[in-house]
Amino acid sequence: MTKALIVLLGILFYLIQILQALPDLNNHRTAKPETLQSKVAQHDLVTKKVPIKIYYETLCPASVDFFINDLGPAVELLEPHINVLLVPYGHAETWPSRGSYKFNCQHGSDECHGNRIHACAIHEIQNNSRAAIFNVCLMTHTLRRDNRMDFFTALNLCGNQMSVNSISEIWNCAVTSRGALLLKNYGEETKRVRPRYVPHVTYGEENQIFYSGNLTAAICDQIKIKPQVCQY
């Protein structure tokens, strides 16, 4: 064997050793997407919000009680983890009138006015959780049987407390055809569900009905990766 051939074989052996020491590039390439997918799945579990929808009417004592004692605390504690959708209409009736709509509400004309204010607050605030807390504030101050303040006074009080700058827009919406149209649309949504009573509350991806108990705990059961407030 010539000296040149021996040198060539030595170089070849050296290169083989180097190649064997390198990581498997194919395995490395396939591992990356799997890692990325797992991270995306983890992110989706953390950020996916639990839907909760409430069909209600503004002067119904049961609705008021639910807003103050159940919905308000749940939104305050779980706001990053829930998507609250309010449907203010309840057991009302709608009929066309001179290019707009009129309503007949279970607790009288004051409730129809309150329903329109709630509908307009949702529309103007444009943040579901913030609108829910704002309407909780309105509910706290306008229960008729307790002889509390009128809607206009409560609207301004809650606006000041929560730094909501669209109070005049909410009021103007409520007393015009815009508010009537919003409430009519909520009425159509309510009629599709046909709740036997209000408040009618559904939550979770399967629209489970919440009857009574601890709303915060019920929502916590739906959250995949539990926040600290759910770890009890």
Output the helix-strand order. Answer: HHEHEEEHHHHHEEH
Query: How much of the residues is beta strand, in percent?
Result: 5-15%
The number of helical elements comes to 9
Total DSSP E strands:
6
Overall form: elongated
Assign the CATH architecture. Answer: 3-Layer(aba) Sandwich
Mean pLDDT: 85
What is the CATH superfamily label? Glutaredoxin
Strand order of the largest sheet: 2-1-5-6
Q: Roughly how many Å is the radius of gyration? A: 29 Å
CATH topology: Glutaredoxin
Structural class: alpha+beta
* Major beta sheet summary: 4 strands, mixed
Residue share in helix: 55-70%
What gap, in angstroms, lies between the N and C termini?
79 Å
Explain what the structure shows.
With 232 residues, this protein is α+β, with helices and mostly antiparallel strands. It has one domain: Glutaredoxin, CATH 3.40.30. The protein is built from nine helices and six strands; from the N terminus they run ααβαβββαααααββα. The protein has helices at 3-21, 25-47, 61-78, 109-125, 128-141, 151-162, 167-174, 177-193, 215-220, and strands at residues 50-56, 82-88, 93-97, 100-104, 200-203, 208-210. The strands form two sheets. The protein has a four-stranded mixed β-sheet. α3 crosses α5. The longest helix is centred in the first third of the chain and has 23 residues, at 25-47. The radius of gyration is 29 Å and the shape is elongated.
What's the SSE blueprint?
Blueprint: H1 3-21, H2 25-47, E1 50-56, H3 61-78, E2 82-88, E3 93-97, E4 100-104, H4 109-125, H5 128-141, H6 151-162, H7 167-174, H8 177-193, E5 200-203, E6 208-210, H9 215-220
Pfam families: GILT (PF03227)
Protein name: Gamma-interferon-inducible lysosomal thiol reductase
GO cellular component, one term: extracellular region
